[in-house]
Amino acid sequence: xxxxxxxxxxxxxxxxxxxxxxxxxxxxxxxxxxxxxxxxxxxxxxxxxxxxxxxxxxxxxxxxxxxxxxxxxxxxxxxxxxxxxxxxxxxxxxxxxxxxxxxxxxxxxxxxxxxxxxxxxxxxxxxxxxxxxxxxxxxxxxxxxxxxxxxxxxxxxxxxxxxxxxxxxxxxxxxxxxxxxxxxxxxxxxxxxxxxxxxxxxxxxxxxxxxxxxxxxxxxxxxxxxxxxxxxxxxxxxxxxxxxxxxxxxxxxxxxxxxxxxxxxxxxxxxxxxxxxxxxxxxxxxxxxxxxxxxxxxxxxxxxxxxxxxxxxxxxxxxxxxxxxxxxxxxxxxxxxxxxxxxxxxxxxxxxxxxxxxxxxxxxxxxxxxxxxxxxxxxxxxxxxxxxxxxxxxxxxxxxxxxxxxxxxxxxxxxxxxxxxxxxxxxxxxxxxxxxxxxxxxxxxxxxxxxxxxxxxxxxxxxxxxxxxxxxxxxxxxxxxxxxxxxxxxxxxxxxxxxxxxxxxxxxxxxxxxxxxxxxxxxxxxxxxxxxxxxxxxxxxxxxxxxxxxxxxxxxxxxxxxxxxxxxxxxxxxxxxxxxxxxxxxxxxxxxxxxxxxx
Length: 599
Prior knowledge:
The protein is of the alpha+beta class and 599 residues long. The strands form nine sheets. Strands 6-7-8-9-16-13-12-11 form an eight-stranded antiparallel β-sheet, covered by helices on one side. Strands 1-2-3-4 form a four-stranded antiparallel β-sheet. It has a four-stranded antiparallel β-sheet with strand order 5-10-15-14, with no helix packed on it. β3 and β4 form a beta hairpin. α3 (225-237) runs antiparallel to α13.
């Protein structure tokens, strides 16, 4: 059984959900109608049970290529065959911002560019993560309703379709210039509109225009424009426009190590990502998206959830609720037999104190570069920082969400310092009310505690947590959040220690895996987010040539479309959920800051 590499995928979406399209033209991941809905196609997690939508030429040898229509999220897969050239355009129509009556459709247009090419397609929907086997009923020769207990889908085409044992199949020959169209959409009833060539062309043109108009707002004109703009489009694809939420990735349970158990559901919104998301959006000029996300974040601050974990949670679902309990789907084999497959994420029940710094830093950035925060939001923030001032010294799970005993993590205290320090800045900038004396006292106390207990004089480095000799790439954030100057001797020594122990040819591990037990078995790959943090740390330290070389090396680990999963293995293959927003956020930050430093 041959598995498609994680990196051999593109992503299409409609700002509600997304689909992965493999290099061989297979849609092997698609949840509808939202990112966190149960899957319709999930063969990326189980080739037998997951379900997929294939399109393939029938005769002769085939090689494939994939690219995006420039400055858009319309994906093109090209099949080079003995008989000619077949092209598939995959997209989900987006008609404009705030499309309240959005009609969700997955569109596939197959065209013979050159030669007479025969192809076939099979739509094998397996709703509810492969737990349901639907019935397929023909409405007419070119329309089929696919229905199961939890899903009702309509498929229309411009060629004849055949319902066969719950699946839908079609086969035809295309002459040069001819196209065949397929449209799959969720249905409320059996009212299925026919597939129309003119309408589909209009949808294609409108969708391309939407993406081009959107990316034109970017203010970035630097050296790495193509990579930065592709990252921005990917970030937009992971945005749920009706709520303003940005999910961490489009998938669940793609493994961090093949055959291992480090398989998590990333279709949620992490507080940890908030500050980096806002920074990237604001740096590129996407103020409307930044405002929507700040509104979503502000609502979370006002929720006042505690339950022993404080007023904020580590992660939320798209609607801002605490996700359902983590579950294992034992009926799915997992990608390359990497079990278990999980839905939900137990990290929602962890205490992670770093999230307060990341959240308040994001609001600080929006207040500095955007229109500012409301009086109600400020009141909520003062209440949140009041809780943090009483609890910053607790042990926690840390930003890497260890599933072991809580510890006094350096990065948690670093970001707690950021939270209090940014509150002081906002109050002074805006003249807002706050107990500046008490805030300043706690800020200084946290600073002194980090300097006294997180610094290891023998290692000449800041360590991961109190009493540890393990290193953690998270401390690369110290100059980025203004805790230490980048030329401070302690940071320079820490950077050198991280280079010696965590860096391999520009790729960076999150922490010392050999000297730290994180509650899980097995190893993981290098963390691409940390690799871009490393580039930014080198930039801030004035090592611009080293930073530039490391950034260019990191670009070689992107896939053929400029996309990144969460991790890169030592064999250079991508690992983990795909594509990962955090990695693309860090790329934007690293590239824009290095550009500015180079002049």
